[in-house]
Design a protein that fits this description.
It is built from 31 helices and 21 strands. The protein has 610 residues and is an alpha/beta fold. It has 2 domains: 299 residues, Rossmann fold, CATH 3.40.50.740; 208 residues, Dimethylsulfoxide Reductase, domain 2 (3-Layer(aba) Sandwich), CATH 3.40.228. Strand 4 and strand 5 form a beta hairpin. It binds ligand MGD (2 copies) and molybdenum atom.
């Protein structure tokens, strides 16, 4: 074990490229995960921590948003989850001495990997105007400074409040409430760069911008289509679910420009066959599609279904859809030439896909960034919804849409109202419950925030989690834009580039992570809640001692800030909220649909489905 981070920077020193892998996970992955975890946490802490990941009385893995099975495995985590946990539960610490040693200019030269390896942030730090180094600052002074800058703005819309999808439901709810009581809907978040197109496409077509399947459905499906997704790297526990589905008789079709190793052969580390045997071949049919060709693929499939006698579920279409004639006319007009050109596939490939589809009564389509990050993402996902509707594959077991979310609570943050375009229903509910008039005008999303920073229209930027500078498109423009801000604030667990590219003044506020004990002022433990990619809401309880005595929870930081900024004029009980998250959940129950009786329902092991 080494509590000391490496001095060298392997990413910058010598990047390595090897031959592509033929299969994924298995023993090498476990060994690697445990080695990384042990280096960061030591043996005892590694064992204690990893056994609590994704258990009913444990904490939600911060790695990704894949759901937990009803009865979690003793080791319900993956290689990457273990790494994500180790990153947070690491014994390495960043103290004021580190910031005295490294100037901001020095830190800017380091790779993201090196910055992340330095360990947990432990004290609030302040970068004064013109200063070269961050210096320690007390919590009161830091919060006063933010309140002062927000107070000095000509309009609340000159502030932007960014969120990354690891924030808990409770923190997200108080964050959006604070921003709206302050007077702005400027709530850009990482969803803007992630599954935004899924939310729009599904909201427009199905009425809910979320997936329609639960984990159990995968085992009931006849065919699972995985399009534009690489679960081997990004959602490794999904491979276990796909393996289960295969054993239950499902076929798997993958659509990807790359033959991703994880979807070809999976060595499940929880089974002997996976550890020592041949593993499971997951993909039955691989369509090596041209970039951006998915819309054309589903359109030609829809045309072929329309042309085939008995291939569509006409009663379902009649009873549950509208606009069918227009859709059918447009779809019939598509040609083979167009489809082959756009998809780069052969006619035989597409006909093989059609046969698999015709042989399958229940179909689920899963997708992620390979579909959501194209210019035609919304129409592509809508084409997929039409594809499913044609054969009645929505609203019954083993069938439906499955957008696989990224960050562990990105879906919950949206549910809690983190959104620059809030619905009138949400605003009405906030107004009723909290007795203030929320702003009705839409706020800025991520890209609009960058433009507004660049043009001097946003002057204060606050981020709860994330790495805004590196995650946003056009890094050079973003970095220059942030430099013009009067104040940038990062509420974070770990150091990253967004702490090194700052406004004229900057603050780092260190916060508790998922793995850590969150104490109430009266000494009891608090828990938070999250929502996974399939709409399951459940509790997350950290048990480790916090990384330092000065850390505060995200919720406590935001409530203290809200009180300072809004003053006695706000009748929201911010102090009570910070002292007892049950009080926040009581309010969520009255504001957010589906959360009635929240505190009772979330007490059940495994939580509840929205
Ligand atoms: N270890 C780790 N895990 C993570 C994250 C992380 O940072 N690290 N991030 C989390 C987050 S926020 C997210 S959103 C998810 C992302 O999860 P994924 O979406 O699985 O991640 P990507 O690596 O972006 O994979 C995109 C896939 O789409 C394919 N693709 C690209 N273009 C096209 C196309 O035009 N059509 C089709 N059909 N396929 C295409 C690519 O070859 C690739 O396989 O991962 C989550 N999990
Ligand atoms: N080039 C490129 N850009 C991308 C993507 C890509 O694949 N490639 N993917 C896009 C996608 S899908 C997404 S979702 C976005 C992600 O965008 P972001 O969410 O902004 O970025 P991350 O890198 O996930 O943020 C990681 C940081 O979050 C902080 N953190 C971790 N856990 C916690 C916590 O519990 N609390 C708090 N307060 N902070 C915490 C740590 O400081 C850590 O360094 O990036 C997008 N941008
Ligand atoms: Mo994401």
């Amino acid at each position: 074990m080494s509590a000391k981070p490496p001095a060298s920077d392997p990413v910058q020193d010598a990047p390595q490229v090897g031959a592509p892998k033929e299969s994924s996970v298995g023993l090498p992955a476990i060994t690697h995960a445990l080695r990384t975890a042990q280096q960061q946490m030591g043996l005892r802490r590694t064992a204690l921590t990893l056994l609590r990941v994704n258990q009913h009385d444990g904490f939600d893995c911060p790695g990704c948003a894949w759901p937990e099975p009803g009865k979690p495995h003793t080791a319900e985590f993956c290689e990457n989850g273990a790494k994500a946990v180790a990153e947070e539960a690491t014994l390495r610490r960043i103290t004021p001495a580190f910031f005295a040693e490294h100037s901001v200019a020095d830190l800017r030269e380091r790779s993201g990997y090196w910055l992340g390896q330095q360990g947990r942030l432990t004290e609030p730090m302040y970068l004064a105007e013109g200063a070269t180094h961050y210096t320690p600052i007390g919590w009161d002074a830091a919060l006063d400074l933010i309140a002062g800058e927000l107070d000095a703005l000509d309009s609340p819309d000159e502030a932007a409040f960014y969120t990354s999808g690891r924030t808990s439901n409770e923190a997200a709810f108080v964050y959006q409430l604070f921003a709206r009581e302050f007077g702005t809907n400027n709530l850009p978040d990482c969803s803007n760069m992630c599954h935004e197109s899924s939310s729009y496409a599904l909201g427009d077509t199905l009425g809910v911008g979320k997936g329609s399947v639960l984990l159990d459905d995968l085992e009931k499906a006849d065919l699972i289509i995985v399009a534009g997704q690489n679960p081997g790297t990004n959602h490794p526990r999904m491979l276990t679910a796909l393996e289960g589905a295969k054993h239950a008789g499902a076929k798997i079709m993958t659509i990807n420009p790359l033959p991703e190793a994880g979807l070809r052969n999976f060595h499940n580390p929880q089974t002997p066959r996976g550890l020592a045997g041949p593993g499971t071949d997951l993909t039955d049919l691989f369509l090596q599609i041209r970039l951006g060709g998915d819309q054309a693929l589903f359109r030609i499939l829809n045309k072929l279904l329309l042309e085939r006698d008995g291939a569509t579920d006409d009663a379902f279409i009649r009873d549950h859809t509208h606009g069918f004639q227009d859709f059918a006319t447009a779809t019939r007009a598509t040609t083979w030439d167009q489809a082959l050109e756009a998809t780069g596939l052969t006619r035989e490939n597409i006909e093989a896909a059609l046969e698999l589809i015709l042989a399958s009564r229940s179909i689920i389509v899963c997708w992620a960034m390979g579909l959501t990050q194209h210019k035609n993402s919304v129409p592509t996902i809508q084409e997929i919804v039409n594809f499913l509707l044609l054969r009645g594959n929505i609203g019954r077991p083993g069938a439906g849409v499955c957008p696989v979310r990224g960050h562990s609570n990105v879906q919950g943050d949206r549910t809690m109202g983190i959104c620059e375009r809030p619905t009138p229903q949400l605003l009405d509910a906030l107004e009723r419950e909290f007795g203030f008039t929320p702003p009705r005008e839409h706020g800025l999303d991520t890209v609009e925030t960058i433009r507004a920073l660049r043009d001097g229209r946003v002057k204060v930027f606050l981020a709860v989690g994330g790495n805004f500078v590196s995650a946003t498109p056009d890094s050079a423009v973003t970095e220059a834009a942030l430099a013009g801000a009067r104040l940038t604030v990062q509420v974070s667990t770990k150091l990253n580039r967004s702490h090194c590219v700052t406004g004229r003044r900057a603050l780092i506020l260190p916060t508790l992570g998922r793995t850590e004990r969150d104490r109430r002022p009266d000494g009891g433990d608090q828990f938070v809640t999250v929502e996974d990619s399939m709409g399951m809401v459940h509790a997350s309880r950290g048990r480790l001692a916090p990384a330092g005595p000065h850390l505060r929870s995200e919720t406590a930081i935001l409530c203290a800030l809200a009180r300072r900024v809004l003053g006695p004029g706000s009748t929201t009980p911010w102090e009570e909220f910070a002292a007892d998250y049950d009080r926040i959940r009581d309010r969520i129950a009255r504001v957010v649909p589906g959360f009635d009786d929240f505190n009772t329902k979330v007490a059940r092991p495994g939580g509840f489905a929205l």
